[in-house]
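WARN no homologs supplied; continuing
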Amino acid sequence: MAFTHALIPVAIAVAALSAPVLHAKTFKWSSASDIPTLDVHSQNNALGNGVHAAVYDSLVYYNSKTFKPEPQLASSWKNLSPTQVRFTLRSGVKFSDGSALVAEDVVYSLMRAMTKTSNYAVYAQGIDKVVKVDDNTIDIILKGPNPVLLNQLTELRIMSKAWAEKNKSVEPKDIKTPEESYAHRNAMGTGPYMVKEWQPDQRLVMVKNPHHWGKDESNVTEIIYTPIKQEATRAAALLSGEVDFVLDPSPQDLGRLRQSGNLKVVDGIENRTIFFGMDQFRDELPGSNVKGKNPLKDQRVRKALYQSIDSASLNRVTMRGLAQATGALVAPQVNGWTEAVHKRHPYDPEAAKKLLADAGYPSGFEVDFACPNNRYINDEEICQAVTAMWARVGVKAKLRTLPLVTYFPMIQRFEASIYMLGWGVPTFDALYSLQSLTRSVGSGGDGNYNVGRYSNPKMDQIVDRVKTETDIPVRDRLLTEALQLQNDDVSHIPLHNQIIPWAMKKNIEVVHRADNRLDWRLIKVN
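OK structure emitted
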């Protein structure tokens, strides 16, 4: 990827600031869960990241129609060498309190994302350090060439260093602990909106940032987000007009939503894969009837669990067709995906029983099974269905479901034997998934969501090479090789890629995105 871009005329931004907003509107939306935090470097969660992008900007951000990185806080950039990229900052940018954005804020924010309590080090992978050149220029110094640096930077949002210091939020909140910082419940950025009020699990209110630098096509001056866990209640809120937009309508409600004369539904495949992970680290699983060893360390057991899942039935009955069955850890839009890695191990309960018997578990075993109940489309229902499928081959999964805000810290503390996870790919490159999910747990984002602690030296070798490989055909081949190794090892059990419908009133204009997030700059309420 070439790190060059033409400067966007400042006059456009100035004109946008001075132009009056006609027919100001409120946009009311909902989904099943609340955001986990307002701290932009704490919990790497897609719903939260999408909301953060309303309040905080990054150096570059995706164009919602082309999905190519384009200037945001950086007006231009260029390679000084294969390991040094210079970014010129946009002039005249202010935070919502009126203070000016300067190079120190960018240096601080990118380094903050790399600290121990941050969940965002995976986006900073390959960065050695960030240095100020002058008030409007910074250099990113790389450990080696990084062909996806710009894609990674789309998720690294910029904070005010002075604000963080003043409010004792210099380091990100540790999402694995209950302790809170000021930045967890408060926000102050350069984005198009600013937070007026956040009552966790009740509502989040954002209003226009009067100091925003950017051109804004939206006529929305107030955004109200209401998390509604119950699917039927969410649908009823949309049908009654209580909300304008639902990010995650349930499959069972889609029929009547599509038939409503006042609503419309827009569909698209998300670049998110839903899968199960398994504890392959502990020598004995808590709560299991198998003592002295861990069945999930045996590849035959993992494959048995995989082959006893009837994905066709899940798609037909549980997902109502809103799923694309897959054997890969990434969706088709992601670089490294091929038809070969997409192919699943066949559903075969008898083969699964034989694998279990060969592994020494002819009668199966008991195991802890944890799932979220308000994060993914029909997440709890999927896990209930799979629990029944596993029971048919003798595996007694003891299912427990938790809300998003407690589920993710729990699995990151390694407290689940089998767990559900959905992994979107903001970089649209398989390195992001492989480094996070299959690389041995280490520093710099390595294995940051490998909470089953799978480890294979060959996988680590491939992932580490991909980080700096610039020969694109070679790099693509390595990504596919790593995805195939995941299939062969059954490090995880892929289920499906989500198909995401967005349901809304007919007077709402949005651009549907494969990363399942709204572009706040483009929303219109007509």
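The CA atoms of residues 177 and 411 lie 12 Å apart.
OK
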